[in-house]
Design a protein that fits this description.
Elements (H helix, E strand, L loop, with lengths): L8 E2 L5 E5 L2 E6 L2 E6 L4 E6 L2 E6 L4 H22 L2 E8 L4 E5 L2 E5 L6 E4 L4 E6 L3 E6 L2 H13 L10 E4 L16
Antiparallel strand pairs: 1-6, 2-3, 3-4, 5-6, 7-12, 7-13, 8-9, 9-10, 11-12
Amino acid sequence: MSRIGKLPIPVPSGVTVQVAGSNVTAKGPKGQLSRSFPDLITFELDGDKVNVLRANETKRARERHGLCRSLLANMVTGVHSGFSKKLSIVGVGYRAAVKGRTLDLTLGYSHPIAYPIPEGVEISVDKQNNIHVSGIDKEAVGQTAAKIRGFRSPDAYKGKGIRYSDEVIRLKAGKSGVAK
């Protein structure tokens, strides 16, 4: 049996989980998330816990057991407390600003980058070089942070670019002077 899939999902107070066939909805103080799951997986509400069960022991059902449990656990956590990612911009002249629903980035290219902020994701910038991406959907927050980081990935030689705040970049040694 799946080690992840067999764990019950605790539902904190203030969060409600509704199961309607293969659709599951989680409502909480931060908002509401809904997702459709495969028919091979069923959900059993047990007071303040949700158990994830397989319909049968086929390979496809076993493969999706832990995945569906993790997705539902992320939904419950998201509507209760939310998710966030922090990015740091390193480089002279590199900066960011939020204007309306657009993130404006100046990253050393010949043009500024205007990134439209997706629905359900909030972005804030402090000191022009720290970006905070937050929201209730873990997948959307992570994808948005990865997309922003991809505009200027950290350089392996100087360390310039956009990185996660807890990311460690090991710098490579540059060319060494060759004596003639």
